[in-house]
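Please check both lines for our workbook:

___
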Amino acid sequence: MNEIFLDTETTGLSPNEGHKIVEIACVETKDLISTDRIFHKIINPQRSVPEGAYKVHGFSTEFLKDKETFNTIANEFVEFIKDKKIIIHNASFDLSFLNYELKLVQKNEIKKNNIIDSLEVARAKFPGASNSLDALCKRFGIDLSKRKKHNALLDCELLREVYINLLDAKEPKLIFSNENSVNDLENRKSINRNYCKIIIKPTLEETKLHSVFLKKELKKNYY
């Protein structure tokens, strides 16, 4: 099953107080490796954006007024997340808004059994510590320099990196695998095949070429 890292930005803290979604981002992965498929929409909330919310994400009422409304993107959103495990940080917040909007357009709500809340994972691992996305990025040494304001698409990628660290896994993009090793590991349930590394040894010719390269570099830098 593929995963979806999901984040939203809103006009406020509760849909019950009339607040709405202004941005939705979903990043699809397979075994936590990006598939390069994303769903990203800026949404007209059909209401004004309070100053406090504007300071958080930078989306003004004027900027949003000509964007798509939720009802026009609902089908595409539902299809994108269909049959996938969804990973959200502080899931109760995002789900309250998403399910409220889905209910308005007569779509099925997102079920909690499809959700992994990375905040709950973090609290179990670091009880008593600050487990906001910013705090976890700092804990794991993840670059936050681009996060000038909250941005759902950027936050999805930061969350993916945080979640990998929460699982004590290395970056999946550094993993090598082949069909035989995957089939073998699938039969050994005690091993999590997603994070097993297979060492690829260089050929004799590659070793010789590397030796020649090193000699050239040494000569260039030291003679």
Remarks:
- Confidence is low (pLDDT under 50) at residues 172-199, 217-223.
- Residues 179-222 form one domain.
- Residues 204-222 form the longest helix (19 residues).
- The chain has two domains: 3-174, 179-222.
